[in-house]
Amino acid sequence: MKLFWFEHPSVRAICAFVSFTIIAMTIGIITVCLGLPKRSDEKCQIQFKRTSQTVIIHDSLPLHVAIGDFNNDTNLDLVIANSGTSNIGIRQGYGNGTFSSEITYSTGFESSPYWVAVEDFNNDTLLDIAVANYGTHNIGIFLGHDHGSK
Fold first, then answer.
1. Would you say the C-alpha torsion 113, 117, 120, 126 has a positive or negative sign?
2. Does residue 128 share a domain with residue 66?
3. Do residues 121 and 78 both lie within one domain?
4. How far apart are CA 30 and CA 58, in angstroms?
């Protein structure tokens, strides 16, 4: 039985093109896969050194930490949302990876602060702190003062 459709010149050209494409792609894939250098598992070059642990108040339940230079000494300080004791704690940084004892500010009775954010909310060039209070369903704002405290 003779296939008449295969005798048409355009069908032969299409079949030849498809065959050539399949062969070229196969050769290309094999060349790329075998020619690429093997990846070595490089280890992360960043290394951390643990500092001494900072003692926290029993049951303070710190939930969130934010950073900022609250006292304008160019060292980063920490503000911690202490949900268990309904306050925020400020730890002033010494610039060497260590921090001062915690100075606490009440966020209200059973407020259970959940999150803190740091920004200059009133455009006085001093950092302020916003506190999302889970227990009282509100937001508290602590405005920065020029003497470095909140």
1. positive
2. yes
3. yes
4. 63
Paired with 16 in beta bridges are none
| Sign of the CA dihedral running 2, 4, 7, 12 | negative
This prediction has a pTM of: 0.65
80, 128: one domain: yes
Bigger pLDDT: 7 vs 19:
19
In a domain, 101, yes or no: yes
Place of tokens 């690429």: 36
Overall domain count for the chain: 2
All residues at 6 or more sequence positions from 77 whose CB lies less than 8 Å from its CB, including other chains: 67, 68, 69, 70, 71, 90, 91, 92, 93, 99
Cα separation, 131 vs 13, whole angstroms: 73
pLDDT, tens digit, 9 for 90 and up, residues 59-87: 889 999 999 999 999 999 999 999 999 99
Structural domain including 29 reads 7-35
Under a CB-based contact definition with an 8 Å cutoff, are residues 116 and 81 in contact? yes
Q: Is residue 77 domain-shared with residue 116, that is, in the same domain?
A: yes
